[in-house]
Amino acid sequence: MSLICRGTGAAIILTLMTLVKLPSSSAEIREINGCVIEPGTDCTHVETGLKYKDLNGVDLSGANLSGITLHGSSLRGANLRGANLRGTEFDMAVLTDADLSEADLTDAYLSLSIVTNINLQGAILTNVDLRYAQGIDSANLEGAQFCHTTLPGGIVRNDHC
């Protein structure tokens, strides 16, 4: 299935992939590509990343997900509070209602992501690409630290450089 988004003079066609659903039972081990889905986990060794995964509501607070890809994944209501998300690719991810407060998003890529009602309170946003992110106007940005961060409309914030 394809979705066509029309913007200022350009049409973007997004192909929607089938998301892989995690086990619903908390008694089951929640592991994807060698990454255990739990608070404080270290998933930097995951070469293929967590592309197109259903991670809705997961608790990855304090996790180290630096440098992995979450391309096309759904993280609705996920808890990523205090997580190391340096260099993480969230391209075309859904982060609606996710908690990324106090997370380090240095060099993260969130372009074409849906970030409606995302909590970025106290997060570090250095060299972050939010250029085509949808819903950033509804985000909690209180205390967020911006440096060389590109927002929709090409606006660059350098409040904490």
What does this protein look like?
The protein is mainly beta. Helices cover 0% and strands 17% of the residues. It contains no helices and ten strands. The strands form five sheets. Strands 1-2 form a two-stranded antiparallel sheet. A hairpin with a 2-residue loop joins strand 4 and strand 5 (35-36). It is globular.
Task: Tag the structure with descriptive keywords.
disordered N terminus, globular, mainly beta, two-stranded antiparallel sheet, 161 residues, single chain
Radius of gyration: 15 Å
Which spans of ≥5 residues are poorly predicted at pLDDT below 50?
Answer: 1-29
Percentage beta strand: 15-25%
Number of DSSP E strands: 10
Q: In percent, how helical is the residue content?
A: under 10%
Mean pLDDT: 84
Number of helices: 0
Largest sheet: 2 strands, antiparallel
Please sum up the structure shown.
This protein has no helices and ten strands.
List the helices and strands and how they pair.
Blueprint lengths: L1 E5 L4 E5 L4 E2 L9 E2 L2 E2 L16 E2 L69 E3 L18 E3 L1 E2 L5 E2 L4
